[in-house]
Each structure stands twice: as C-alpha cells, then as structure tokens.
Amino acid sequence: xxxxxxxxxxxxxxxxxxxxxxxxxxxxxxxxxxxxxxxxxxxxxxxxxxxxxxxxxxxxxxxxxxxxxxxxxxxxxxxxxxxxxxxxxxxxxxxxxxxxxxxxxxxxxxxxxxxxxxxxxxxxxxxxxxxxxxxxxxxxxxxxxxxxxxxxxxxxxxxxxxxxxxxxxxxxxxxxxxxxxxxxxxxxxxxxxxxxxxxxxxxxxxxxxxxxxxxxxxxxxxxxxxxxxxxxxxxxxxxxxxxxxxxxxxxxxxxxxxxxxxxxxxxxxxxxxxxxxxxxxxxxxxxxxxxxxxxxxxxxxxxxxxxxxxxxxxxxxxxxxxxxxxxxxxxxxxxxxxxxxxxxxxxxxxxxxxxxxxxxxxxxxxxxxxxxxxxx
Amino acid sequence: xxxxxxxxxxxxxxxxxxxxxxxxxxxxxxxxxxxxxxxxxxxxxxxxxxxxxxxxxxxxxxxxxxxxxxxxxxxxxxxxxxxxxxxxxxxxxxxxxxxxxxxxxxxxxxxxxxxxxxxxxxxxxxxxxxxxxxxxxxxxxxxxxxxxxxxxxxxxxxxxxxxxxxxxxxxxxxxxxxxxxxxxxxxxxxxxxxxxxxxxxxxxxxxxxxxxxxxxxxxxxxxxxxxxxxxxxxxxxxxxxxxxxxxxxxxxxxxxxxxxxxxxxxxxxxxxxxxxxxxxxxxxxxxxxxxxxxxxxxxxxxxxx
Lengths: 376, 305
Description:
The complex is a heterodimer of chains A (376) and B (305).
Chain A: H1 3-26, H2 28-48, E1 56-61, H3 67-78, E2 82-87, H4 93-100, E3 105-109, H5 113-120, E4 122-130, H6 134-158, E5 164-172, H7 183-210, H8 212-217, H9 223-251, H10 261-285, H11 289-307, H12 319-325, H13 329-342, H14 351-371
Parallel strand pairs in A: 1-2, 1-3, 4-5
Antiparallel strand pairs in A: 3-4
Helix pairs in contact in A: 1-9, 2-7, 2-9, 3-6, 7-9, 7-10, 7-11, 7-13, 9-10, 10-13, 10-14, 13-14
Chain B: E1 4-13, E2 16-26, E3 31-35, H1 42-49, E4 57-62, E5 65-66, H2 71-77, E6 78-81, H3 93-103, H4 112-122, H5 135-147, E7 153-157, H6 165-180, E8 184-189, E9 200-205, E10 208-213, H7 215-220, E11 225-232, H8 234-243, E12 247-253, E13 256-261, H9 268-277, E14 281-287, H10 292-304
Parallel strand pairs in B: 3-8, 3-9, 6-7, 7-8
Antiparallel strand pairs in B: 1-2, 1-4, 4-5, 9-10, 11-13, 11-14, 12-13
Helix pairs in contact in B: 3-5, 4-5
C-alpha cells in the first residue's frame, strides 16, 4: 500500500465521519435533547436537592422551662432557618407531630436542663429530624447543632467553668443519609452512558432498519471503519456534555472538583469510550431502532439508576445485587468520580476503577467486532 | 468468462424454501431479467449474488469470483440497488452521491460520463434532501449512487416497483443505455411487461425458475392459439369460458379475458355465437399475440400438472 492509497483510505473515514455529523446536526430535535439533557438534569437535580432551608417548622419539648432552654429556643426562633410552631406536652408527642407531617425537626430538652448544666456542667438536647428527605434532615440538624454550639460558646466566654451541652442527633427513617453531593457523579454516570450507548446503538441500527446498511455492505468499506465513524461524533458530543456538566456543577451548584481535574477527565473519557463500545455491542444484537432503545433503556437506564449507587448505596444492597452491580460500568465510574471529584483523593486511589473500565471497554469492542455481520 | 454463473443454489428461511436449485448463466454485457411475483425468490437470489446472503447449497460466481470466498473483491466491482430506497433521506442529492463515491474511493467527476444521462434529470434538485424527492427521482438517484464507482456488473432489485409508468419507461431507457456501455445488468421486476426490455429473462415462481429464455422466444414458444374475449357480464363469462370444451385455459386480463383454445376445433366466430346464445352482450373475440404474462400463466399451469 502506497501513501496515496493510505491517504485515500483516511479520506473514506473522513467522509464517513462527516456524514455522521450531518445526520446529527440535521436532526434538530435530537440535537436539542442531546445538548440540553445534561443541563436540565443537573439543574433539576441540583435544585431539587438544595441545601438551602428556610423557616423549617420546629416542635420543642421543654420540661424545665428555665433560662437556658428559653434562650436556646429564642435563638432557634430568631434564626431565619427555623420557626418554632409547636410546644410539646411530652417527648412522645414528637412522634405524633412527625406523623402528622406538621414539623420537620423536634428539639427535646433534657429534664432540669439549667440545673444540670450548672451543677454537672453537662446537659442534653435531643434533635429529631424527619429524614425522609435526608439532605434536608442533615441540614436542619446541622444548623440546630451550630446554634446550640454558639450558645455553649457564649457560656464559656462568660464563665470559667466548662459547660457542655451535648446535642444528640437522631435521623428518622433514613439513617444512612446519602450525601447531597452524590447526585453530580450519578448524573454524570447516567447522562454519559445514555447519550453514548443509546444514541450510537440507535444510529447504527437505523442504518440496518432503513436499508442503507445493505447498500453500505456492498462496498469496500470495512465494517470497523463503518462503526468507528459512528463513534466519533458521539464521542465529541459527550465531551461537550462532560464539560457542560462539570462547569454547571462547579459554578452553579458549587460542587467543586477537589481532586485532580486531569484524572477526572481521563476517567470520564475512558467511561465515554466504554459507553460507546456498549452501544456498539447493543447495535450488533438488535435489528430495530425501537429494540435498540428498549435494550439500552432497560439494560442501561435502570441498572445505572438502581445499581450504580446513584440512589441506593451499593454497600447496603443484598450480596447478589452488589455482585450484579459490579458489572454495571456506571458503578465504577461513579465510584471513581466520587473519589476524584468529591473526596479529592489522588488518582492512584482510583486505579481499580480505571482497570475495571478498561477491561470492560476491551471486552465490549472485542465482542462487537466479532458479532458484526458482514452479511445481512 | 461468464459475467454470472449460478449453480443449483438453494436457500430457506426456517421452513420456507425461498430458492430451490436455481441455475443459470449471464453473459458479459447482457441485460438479464428476473421476472416473477412477490415471493418468487428474486430478492433472495439477488442478495446471494450481491454477497449479502449465503446460499444453503449450490455455488455462484460473479465475474468468475466465488460469491462466498471472494465477497470482498465482488463488493468492489458490483453496483447494487436494494429493493427499498436505501439512501440517506436527510442528506441532499449531491451529498448522497458524493458519499457513495467516497466510500468506493471514487469521485463523481471520474464516472460522470456514466451517470450523466440520468443525473442531468435530477441535477436541478441537487441540493434537495433525498427524502423529499418523488418516487421516480429517488430511483434515479439510487441508480446514480449504484453506478458511481463504474461497476462492471449491476444488481437492481425491483427498481421500478412503486414508480409511475412514465418514470418506469425512462428507467428502462437508462438501463438500455447502460447496457450499450457494456455493463452487465441483472434486474428483478414483478411487471411482466418490462420483460420485453431484457435480453433474456428467468421466469420465477416460488423459488424456482420456470423458464430461462429471450422474451421473444418465450412468446414464440407459446403452445396454443390465444384469443382475447370480451362480453358482459365479465365474471360469469370467465367461468363459462373455463367450462367450454374447446378452451384450454382462460385468465382475466384487465378488460378482456385471454383464452387459449384448440383452434383446430373452433373459430373466433363460432365462439362469439356460442357466447351470444348464453345471453352475453357486447361479445367480441379476436386473435392476439401472447404476452410474457400469458406465457407465465401457461407455464405455471403446465408446471402444476
């Protein structure tokens, strides 16, 4: 092969890729969905799980009604976060208030609060929060604890004796308390795999369904070039989406990239490649666009949402589901992103994730090349 | 070397046998027609020749190349136009053409002389999306795309199905001029009247070939005298004709029945009289030359007996 035929060969690839871009750019609706989906999702998730809490309804049980409890209650009331709406007759009444849904936080003072504080230097407060919304519960108890700590600080400044008010926090209904930052890696994992796998598989299968594959097969184009040309535009689109998601999460949601940005990018590009390869694999297995959509919807969307740790923590799943979740690429990616982006760990900490994703990519590519039919 | 040689090729889909031991040869530069209704096996046969399907048994060669082993080489040198429109609807006429040229490492300029006659008709619409073309123009564009790499052999699967009569005629004119330029063409069609435009035809039915001949010879070999019979009411007429002792076969053909008769025993006038006695109005009986369709019907009947 001379250089001329080589350059002609790459010209073929260039034409194939150009054609794919045309398909995408001419389908305005799909374009809009592709580019707007990450923005909408990030903003939706971001503001649905907002950390800002205002005027939360608070119930107080204060059996001693002394100087300290009154001061603390006043401070709670004074802050813009809380609104004391109910005085409880007994600690047990708190349960009722929660069941009625009228309060989201209960503050239970111990008996003889002031007396205990002066005599033993220690007094107890129990904070009970409705953790059906775990993020709100965490925020509320956090704010309340800091108001109590402020009061304690004040006492320390006035008197030389060390006083300790211990706030005991109880989370009702959802003791695990998934962190608020969890959704950024989750959305990244989901959007990237959806766009890459679903869109590539549909794009390839569309050629089968409309019959253009038939015309393409009776040509000297190598199957690999054909498929490769489908991957390039979606790879580019996914990189744009990745940038959008990261910019939004850093500047709009204030979820910073605490670890290595380079490492995060590398991991994401690898994940994008895995997703593209998965889309390729799906396209070799199904014959219609609807089937491709269902396959990628069922095979990707649900496991990604349910098994990747995006919604339910993998650690608390039954063993069999944990095992199952380890074949979900998103699980490894989300794990890696948490380490690199949220926890700020060094790249070396996510070597396992890199390795698993690389293996998956190699496996998907190998199987789909083997499965690609050079005939109908 | 034959342009095409098919040897005992069979192919089934599950329990349905789509092709049964089909054999024929096509000469270089010949315009060869596969004629038959839907389900005759035309598409399966063309797909096997275009290396898109594997035969269950038998062997086919294209330009001397084995259709299974040398499929890559065959794909480089044949042009193939699938049965359904298989160009990119969201690309313009020009973009489709350039794309198909590029995947064959060709340019539109190199083979312009080949497609010139056809392309000139769609050139005014070259920036229009292929999906917005009329049926006839789509087929012309598809033909241009199949020709863009100067193939030595062209496979066309029902190129005129769903196309208006004028465009159909134009399309066959194009095939005739391509044949003039030395391209071997294998074309399938369910329209029997198009058979006359071919050099030779294979009449296909249920996966087999009834006959492979020139259309002229097929017509010449029609074994009986054929009359066209009209009279009201037409439906009862068909049944009475079939009951008539001197009639061999009778088929409805649009506004007249085509009737094969034992001409040594009856004349057109006699039949006319017979029918008038049976209360038919506007009776008209005249001798006609058989069409390919008449031959097809006759061969089908002979085949069944």
